[in-house]
Design brief:
- This is Putative nucleotidyltransferase with HDIG domain.
- InterPro entries: HD/PDEase_dom, HD_domain, HD_GYP_dom, HDIG_dom.
- GO terms for molecular function: transferase activity.
- The protein contains 14 helices and eleven strands.
- It is elongated.
- It folds into two domains: about 70 residues, no CATH class; about 230 residues, Hypothetical protein af1432 (Orthogonal Bundle).
- A hairpin with a 5-residue loop joins β4 and β5.
- By secondary structure, it is α+β, with helices and mostly antiparallel strands.
């Protein structure tokens, strides 16, 4: 291969079906992830590197490869650059934005998850959990205070790794997002934020009475199984009352979060403003998290696709004002979305600034030449830069995995 005229990596877009191919100097290979774009052949016809060789793996398993290539007068390797963001790189993004964007206390989140699980367990056995409910309310108050200080709530939501924990992490996520939407709809109303955060933790309480084989069935429910599933809203309200919950706002969240604006929800077929504002907020939060979560029977939907689906149902299934609050909260490119910019750099959206939904803040993980910088750079597309988003590539989903506390 003839050496490019510059020592800088050379982009060759479109040469392999639209992929980004870069001629990379051997000394810079350690800054790239991707695969060798074409067979590397020696002058006497020997295959030095086959097309498709993984660059990081090659450098680890063949530490002397660069010396070998130089002996055959090779100074550059054509690399099909990978724009994927790994879990480790996403965690680096979270660390990079932490000083500027306050994240949720993971210890607080973990305690809330554990307490939800404790309440569910007691209700499953006894039908109520009075002491557990009092403790859970205190955890909800702490969570609500964090919600009011967290400007990018999607990056605080928990990822579901274990299907056994889905219900409890889902309850946390609905609590966080419900509280956050309440703060957008009614700024300064701390009481509403607290109510919605606690209500989110309680909303699926009745699933403690639904058989596990139905909750975790890896396929479509039969009509009979779905009817059993639908009973969870009534079971939840009964269990909440038995556990000492008397606040009608909280009870409406538990009973009515599956009611729909057009009247085709359950259990009571309520419509429009006959559904409490608390249940309407929880409904949007519940559906968004359910769509973007990994389950035994489905892969997670991208956050952007989930927002689009909820937007399409505004005014039919969901209160339009709450859907607009969701859109203002997460933007057209929700936090966690991996995007490619107009200069072919790649980064993770970390939030919306200046209410410009098309030009969010992005934490770059791959520069315009395909290199992985030592530390991510944060740019705000709304501040007059010429850069814009070319396309959405992927979705890192929720930002945090809350591991089990050590016993």
């Amino acid at each position: 291969m003839e050496k490019p005229p510059s020592a800088e990596p050379q982009n060759r877009y479109g040469e392999t079906g639209g992929e980004n191919v870069v001629d990379v100097p051997l000394d810079d290979l350690c800054h790239y992830r991707g695969k060798v774009a074409e067979d590397i052949i020696s002058e006497d016809g020997a295959l030095l590197l086959p097309r498709g060789s993984d660059i990081p793996l090659m450098l680890r398993t063949m530490p002397g490869i660069t010396k070998t290539l130089r002996r055959w007068n090779r100074e550059f390797i054509p690399v099909q650059v990978s724009s994927d963001i790994t879990e480790e790189e996403f965690e680096a993004v979270l660390r990079a934005i932490e000083p500027k964007t306050r994240m949720l206390d993971p210890g607080l989140a973990r305690r809330a998850i554990d307490q939800v699980e404790e309440v569910y367990s007691r209700i499953s056995e006894n039908g109520h959990s009075r002491e557990g409910m009092e403790t859970l309310e205190k955890e909800a108050d702490r969570l609500a205070r964090d919600v009011m200080r967290s400007p990018q709530i999607l990056l605080c939501l928990g990822k579901v790794k274990d299907s056994d924990e889905y219900t409890f992490i889902h309850s946390l996520n609905v609590a966080l997002l419900s509280g956050y939407l309440a703060s957008i709809l009614h700024p300064g109303d701390e009481e509403l934020v607290k109510t919605m955060t606690f209500g989110g933790l309680l909303h699926d309480l009745g699933k403690a009475k639904v058989p596990q084989e139905i909750l975790n069935k890896p396929g479509r429910l039969t009509s009979e199984e779905f009817e059993i599933m639908k009973t969870h809203s009534i079971h939840g309200m009964v269990s909440a009352v038995a556990s000492g919950v008397s606040d009608r706002r909280l009870l409406s969240v538990v009973r009515s979060h599956h009611e729909r604006w057009g009247g085709d929800g359950y259990p009571d077929g309520l419509r429009e403003n006959r559904i409490s504002i608390h249940a309407r907020i929880a409904a949007v939060a519940d559906v968004f998290d359910a769509l973007t979560a990994k389950r035994v029977y489905k892969d997670p939907m991208r956050s952007r696709e989930a927002v689009s689906m909820i937007l399409e149902s505004s005014g039919s299934s969901f209160d339009g004002a709450i859907v607009r609050a969701l859109l203002l909260s997460v933007g057209l490119y929700p936090p966690g979305t991996v995007v490619e910019l107009s200069d072919y750099s790649v980064g993770v959206v970390t939030g919306v600034r200046n209410k410009d939904l098309l030009r969010p803040q992005v934490c770059l993980s791959v520069d315009s030449r395909g290199r992985r910088p030592e530390s991510p750079a944060i740019i705000d597309l709304s501040l007059g830069t010429d850069l814009f988003i070319r396309r959405s590539l992927n979705d890192m989903g929720k930002g945090v995995v809350y591991g089990r506390t050590e016993s």
